[in-house]
């Protein structure tokens, strides 16, 4: 069953064993979602796991996250950190239910250990086997993580799909030539093998401090070509009423503030730049799940309402689902107060890491958050 | 930037609105019970939403002892039961009896304010009881003898009487709570003895 996925929004997500996330569940996600929690509560880890859940069959996504973080992606110790308590006998499970049609996707991520990689021939069998047994790492010789193995299936209309397997090798792997009938097969780091049977059209992206300004000019170019530039300029005038035009010259965006000369966009304030960057992402993509980590970073609280109004406007137009994190009370207030509609399409989730890494999730609708704000109660 | 009302103390009393908050704050002071934070749930109209929400506050875990003080309105038993339901729904242990505390931490107490000697009523009834022998109250009773003959009488006689009493004072206070802050109600009165006993739980 290779039914293509259309745009879907996450409805429910459960993550087990990804970094600090021992077991956490977000239910009843809506089009606009804000995840709040104290520092170190696991918000960024949650966004990363959701990024993997957007396309659960793609083995490259967690590698991308490591690259953005500037981590040494061939260091096996770094790869260990994605497993809860750095224990390679723990597996990562990400269950994501998406809507329209309702489909529940079950992803398991296991480490590929040096002991798994005896021969290329055996490898495929081992890969399947590894997902069916929980290994006891304490009983084995010290084992190096050489990559990740992903197993995915989904349930739709009460029917379970076949299993799909993907792999990412993070180390140079040389299979044993004796076991492979004299052939030496080597696999280079970052060799990715995604199942071509699983067609996932659910699409999305992550926006964080590492990605937000990368290729901004290319996104702006797409906006300009699609004749959406004026919408963005109108919104950005909230930040600077002198703004006349934005123009791409080469790979630099120039701003026209009515002076004799245009100036590079970098001279503008952070609120202006961040909103431009967010809008070029949201306005360019239709039917996307957009994950934004620490959305308030670097913005003055007075600019938050303008930024949220712009995001709502763009995302409603493009039918994008937004899942953002913050620990700023002002950002929560701006999120609630800027929403232009009276429907029930907003949720705020507070995540709390309790004793023994157990997670407590409280979910609030717009009315409940408004009561918090009216009473000046601490919601974070 | 908005200033949040954070939970700063381990002992907290929740009241339905600001009037009760002012009354309880002043009464605690009179009883020399300190170290208690009194928080308003934003008024009776919202309490159905704000009371369950209070348990989800990010700083709720600070609380070791919590009292919820509510008006009985028509029936103290049903008000107690609905309050206890909210506590249970948030996976906390409620007290077994009205005007008492649970033994599990956080210790949660529920006090239902009634007209003294009845199972209905509100804070205003208790306030009026504490001043029933004053000269001003005698004037109010005479006034209400007249009011009671009107074809359209006040919907809430206790609130109206309380208002009339405050109007009969040398300085008129806009609300029961502000009157409490100015020590208009007689905190020594035995009409407040049940509440006095209940609040002893907050002594160190």
Description:
The complex is a heterodimer of chains A (380) and B (204). In chain A, strand 6 and strand 7 (159-160) form a beta hairpin. In chain A, helix 5 (216-225) crosses helix 7. With 380 residues, chain A is of the alpha+beta class. Chain A is built from 10 helices and 19 strands. In chain A, strands 1, 2, 4, 5, 6, 7, 8 and 11 form an 8-stranded antiparallel sheet that branches. Chain A has a 6-stranded mixed sheet with strand order 12-16-17-3-18-19, sandwiched between helices. Chain A has helices at 43-54, 61-68, 76-80, 120-132, 216-225, 229-236, 270-284, 304-318, 329-338, 366-375, and strands spanning 10-18, 21-26, 32-36, 92-98, 103-113, 145-156, 159-160, 164-169, 173-174, 186-187, 191-193, 203-207, 245-249, 252-256, 263-264, 288-292, 321-326, 346-353, 359-364. Chain A folds into 2 domains: 58-197, no CATH class; 207-374, P-loop containing nucleotide triphosphate hydrolases (Rossmann fold). Chain B has 204 residues and is an alpha/beta fold. Chain B is 39% helix and 13% strand. Chain B contains 8 helices and 5 strands. Chain B has a 5-stranded mixed sheet with strand order 2-1-3-5-4, sandwiched between helices. In chain B, helix 1 links the parallel strand 1 (11-15) and strand 2 (36-40). In chain B, helix 4 packs across helix 6. The longest helix of chain B is centred in the middle third of the chain and has 14 residues, at 76-89. The mean pLDDT of chain B is 95. Chain A binds chain B through residues 38, 301, 329-330, 333, 350, 352, 362, 364, 367-368, 371-380, and chain B through 1-7, 40-42, 46, 49-50, 53-54, 56-59.
């Amino acid at each position: 069953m290779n039914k293509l996925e259309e745009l879907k929004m996450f409805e429910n997500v459960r993550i087990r064993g990804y970094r600090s996330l021992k077991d956490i569940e977000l239910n009843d996600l809506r089009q606009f979602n804000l995840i709040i929690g104290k520092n170190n509560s696991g918000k960024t880890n949650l966004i990363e796991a959701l990024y993997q859940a957007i396309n659960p069959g793609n083995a490259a996504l967690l590698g991308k996250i490591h690259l953005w973080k500037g981590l040494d992606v061939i260091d096996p110790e770094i790869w260990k950190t994605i497993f809860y308590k750095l224990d390679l006998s723990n597996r990562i499970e990400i269950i994501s239910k998406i809507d329209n049609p309702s489909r529940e996707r079950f992803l398991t991520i296991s480490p590929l250990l040096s002991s798994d990689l005896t021969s290329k021939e055996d490898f495929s069998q081992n890969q399947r086997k590894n997902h069916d047994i929980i290994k006891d790492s304490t009983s084995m010789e010290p084992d190096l993580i050489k990559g990740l193995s992903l197993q995915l299936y989904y349930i739709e209309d009460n029917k379970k799909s076949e299993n799909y397997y993907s792999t990412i090798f993070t180390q140079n792997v040389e299979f044993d030539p004796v076991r492979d009938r004299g052939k030496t097969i080597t696999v280079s780091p970052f060799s990715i093998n995604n199942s071509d049977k699983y067609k996932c059209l659910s699409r999305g992206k992550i926006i964080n401090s590492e990605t937000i300004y990368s290729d901004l000019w290319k996104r702006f170019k797409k906006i300009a070509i699609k004749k959406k530039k004026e919408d963005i300029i109108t919104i950005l005038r909230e930040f600077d009423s002198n703004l006349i035009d934005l123009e791409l010259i080469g790979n630099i965006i120039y701003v026209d503030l009515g002076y004799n000369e245009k100036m590079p966009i970098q001279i503008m304030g952070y609120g202006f730049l961040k909103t431009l960057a967010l809008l070029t992402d949201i306005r360019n993509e239709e039917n996307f799940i957009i994950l934004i980590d620490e959305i308030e970073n670097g913005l003055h609280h007075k600019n938050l309402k303008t930024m949220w109004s712009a995001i709502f406007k763009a995302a409603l137009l493009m039918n994008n689902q937004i899942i953002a994190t913050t620990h700023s009370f002002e950002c929560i207030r701006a999120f609630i107060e800027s929403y232009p509609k009276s429907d029930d399409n907003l949720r705020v989730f507070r995540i709390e890491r309790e004793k023994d890494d157990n997670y407590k999730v409280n979910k609030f609708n717009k009315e409940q958050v408004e009561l918090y704000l009216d009473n000046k109660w601490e919601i974070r | 930037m908005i200033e949040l009302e954070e939970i700063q103390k381990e002992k907290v009393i929740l009241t339905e609105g600001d009037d009760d908050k002012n009354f309880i704050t002043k009464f605690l002071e009179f009883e020399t019970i300190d170290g208690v934070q009194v928080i308003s749930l934003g008024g009776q109209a919202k309490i159905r939403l704000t009371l369950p929400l209070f348990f989800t506050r990010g700083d709720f875990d600070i609380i070791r002892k919590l009292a919820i003080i509510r008006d009985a309105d028509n029936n103290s038993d049903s008000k107690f039961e609905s309050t206890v339901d909210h506590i249970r729904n948030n996976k906390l242990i409620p007290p077994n009896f009205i005007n008492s505390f649970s033994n599990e931490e956080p210790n949660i107490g529920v006090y239902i304010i009634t007209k003294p000697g009845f199972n209905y009523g509100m804070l205003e009834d208790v306030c009026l009881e504490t001043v029933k022998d004053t000269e001003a109250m005698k004037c109010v009773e005479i006034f209400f003898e007249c009011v009671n003959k009107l074809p359209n009488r006040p919907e809430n006689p206790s609130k109206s009487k309380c208002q009339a009493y405050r109007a009969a004072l040398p300085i008129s206070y806009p609300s029961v709570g502000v009157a409490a802050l100015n020590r208009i109600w007689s905190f020594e009165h035995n009409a407040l003895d049940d509440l006095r006993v209940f609040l002893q739980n907050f002594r160190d």
